[in-house]
Amino acid sequence: MRDMSWNKHGRLHDIITWPEREEVDKYIYTPGLHGLELAKALMDGRILGMRCSDGKVYVPPKTFCPDYSQGELVEVKGPWRLQHYTVVYEDLYGNRLEKPIVVGVIKPDDADLGMIHIVNVDPSAVRQGMTLRPVFRPKEQRKGTILDIEYFEPA
Amino acid sequence: MGMVTNLFVKDRVAIVGAGITTFMRRALETPRELAWEAARMALDQAGLTLKDVDCVVIGSAPDTFDGVHLKGEYLADGSGAIRKPMTRVYVGGGTGVFVPVSAWWHVASGLCKTVLAVGEEKMSPAHPHPQYVFRYIWDPIIHRPLEPNLIWIFAMEMRRYMAKCGAKKEDIALVSVKNKRNALDNPAAQVAANITVDDVLKSEVLVWPVQELDVSPVTDGAAALVITSENVARQVTDSPVWIEGVGFTLDNQHWENRELAFPRYLNYAARMAYRMAGIERPWKEIDVAEPYDPFDYKELHHIEGLMLARPCEAWKLLKEGYFNRDGELPTSPSGGLLGVGNPIAAAGVMKVAELFWQLRYEAGKRQVKRPVHRAVANAWGDLMQAGTVIVLGN
Amino acid sequence: MSVTKLPGTKLGSKEMYSLPGLVESAPQAKYDFSAGPTISRFLQGLKEGKILGRKCPRCGRIYVPPRDYCEYCHVALTDWVEVPDTGTVHTAVVSYISVRRERLEKPEIIGVIRLDVPGYPPNGYEFAGLFHRLCVPPEEAMSDEVIGMKVRARWKPKEQRTGSILDIECFEPVR
After folding, report:
1. pLDDT class for C53, splitting at 50, 70, 90?
2. Would you say B309 and B317 are in contact if contact means Cβ atoms under 8 Å apart?
3. In terms of Cα–Cα distance, which of B104, B100, B101 is closest to B117?
4. Average per-residue pLDDT in chain B?
């Protein structure tokens, strides 16, 4: 069987490489059906969840339930508790952050599943189950994305 | 027509439900929600719920269009695939027919009894224009330095077809006229219109000979099918639509080394599907077809590849009205991609859904004016490479 | 189907860009493609002003652009042969749009050139060929006479060749 191994007839410096850029300038993502309602609520300083036919409430709302029916939008008031967390020391590119960030799954008592966000607390002070509350940005800075909540802080 | 014995499988496979979303240039829904809407409609039509579904097949392009990577996983909960076996398939535009083909073998192998097959595409997030994304399919070293736009390759094929077969622009434009008019009766249609050949010839010249109205649009949309084994089908409906043959082939990427007037990649896939379905003379035995029509000349190209007309003859038959809804062999009664829209991975599923409704006489105003027993749909993908074919029967 | 209103929520262009909750993201992907040993050699040949093809030792088929394996024999291709830089036009088109779907000031004339490489039947389905520009004016590209027209590669001057497909400027008619 003929061996095609290229290191017999080619050498590394004979190989030409071609640089190439990414294929689009940018992507613009629409929020979706429930996402649009959540966006409007966030701009208003409120957080929404979705109630499904099995009684469970999901945060954030995702339009459809596990049984495929459309969920019903409800407002979620808290209190919020930190379910799980981790401490992040490096950014996306591997550079050391000045101040480590605590990221956690935060669940309100009036819902069954939580959402991910930043917790504004010192890593040494963070405790699983601690009570938190959302801190919204000033109204004129809100755009309807999850970043309208600047972070969660101990209540 | 006697019952065709399929030598390859013991248990026949049927489509029992179909669903589609509206096809639109920009959707509010996220890709997950589009998949959910189409899949729910399909399940509702079949009278089944998510609990009844054993396996899920998803077809969607990778992140290039909608900017979401790991598409199979992302679409999984929109497609009912949580805690179920899920297969993701993609062969460019060929995915649309490859999704039901893949669902077919999930059932035919005995692994699954009820499969939810979903095709979804959201192209609007890509900026500056989704068409720009297609530059990524060209060979990076020997093609891309020439800065080709995707439409170039279609224009080259169209030109060759015109030169070899003697077809003129006004002959080929009839496909666009026919399909957009057919689409007026399709509630999902994005670009249905009553146009004339003149309108096509006066539209903006993009890459001569291709003009604006020769091309299908950029679309967001989803379509889904429920595919089951014979036992389940008989419990669920009186009129299952049997999948009698499947075919799929990949040619090489070097389309600059082939005669562009005939789609060999499709012909091989078609032969595979016809052999399985026991069809020896497709031009006589097929009653209605949905050939893939991202461009108007492509429908003619594919009609010939599917052996529904002799090479270079399709445009002549088109002129005689042979392929109209009230003709001998109606093609694209749905309105096709030219009339309904072209969400890359979902367009073919839409075509199969249309044949599903046609074979059950449920297509309403779009129903073709002749009895239908056997139908064929095809989809095409990549650089004149991927051909996928499915043969259905009632 | 009996429903007349299908699921799905259309957005107009202005509507979409004024939605609350839109998220924008620019991908940071950069790639370095290796041409591989075969295409690297092909590009080297272009730099030297030659079109190289690669021959299958079993069936003798010469592939342009060259491959690593024969598609029919599944055997590694070995010998490199120089093929004529002449051929006939298989198809030709005139592009008025750029790769970004913008209007071009000067149209691009491109096509597929069937090269005069021996071993392929004259009207066969397959042939050795290249996708490249044609140096003819748009009117000529749109005429019937251009299909089957004899052409030859117009090479860039030696000092401008870098080992790229663009070392051939275009294919020009042999008059």
Report:
1. very high
2. yes
3. B100
4. 91
Shortest Cα distance, chain A CAs vs residue C48, angstroms: 14
- Give the model's pLDDT for residue A23: 66
Does residue B370 register a pLDDT over 80?
A: yes
- Residue B5 is predicted with a pLDDT of 53
- Kindly state whether residue A95 falls inside one of the protein's structural domains: yes
Per-residue pLDDT reduced to its tens digit, A41-92: 999 999 999 999 989 999 999 899 888 889 999 999 989 999 999 999 999 8
CATH number of B13-128+216-393: 3.40.47.10
What is the residue extent of each domain of chain C? 36-173
Chain B within 8 Å of A28 (Cβ-Cβ)?
Answer: yes
Burial class (CB in 10 A: 0-12, 13-18, 19+), B278: middle
Ramachandran angles phi, psi of A114, nearest 5°: -110, -175
Mean pLDDT across the stretch C145-151? 94
User: What's the rounded Cα separation, in Å, for the pair B255 and B156?
Assistant: 10
Torsion of CA B41, B44, B50, B56, to 10 degrees: -50
CATH number of domain containing A85: 2.40.50.140
Average of per-residue pLDDT across B276-288: 94
Question: Could you give the CA distance from residue C76 to residue C74 in angstroms, rounded to a whole number?
Answer: 7
- A14 domain-assigned: no
| A49 neighbors A104 (Cβ within 8 angstroms) | no
Predicted ipTM?
A: 0.91
Asked if A36 and B28 come within 8 Å (Cβ–Cβ), the reply is yes
- Residue A19 is assigned to a structural domain of this protein: no
Q: How many CB pairs under 8 A join A and B?
A: 76
Residue C120 in this model has a pLDDT that exceeds 80? yes
Nearest neighbour of A16 by CB, restricted to C23, C27, C40? C40
The token duo for C118 is 């021996």
Q: Computed from CA positions of residues B308, B321, B390, B235, in that sequence, does the dihedral angle turn out positive or negative?
A: negative
Can you give the pLDDT at residue A7? 38
Distance from CA of B347 to the nearest CA of A (A): 21
CB–CB contact B127 A25 (8 Å)? yes
Q: Which residues of A touch C (CB under 8 A)?
A: 2-4, 6, 9-10, 14-31, 33, 35-36, 38-40, 42-43, 143-145
Residue A73's domain spans which residues? 26-154
Number of separate domains in chain A: 1
Integer Cα distance of C148 and B159 in angstroms: 12
- Residue A5 falls inside a structural domain: no
Could you tell me which residues are beta bridge partners of residue B17?
A: B226
Scan residues 312-351 of B and list those with Cβ closer than 8 Å to A: none
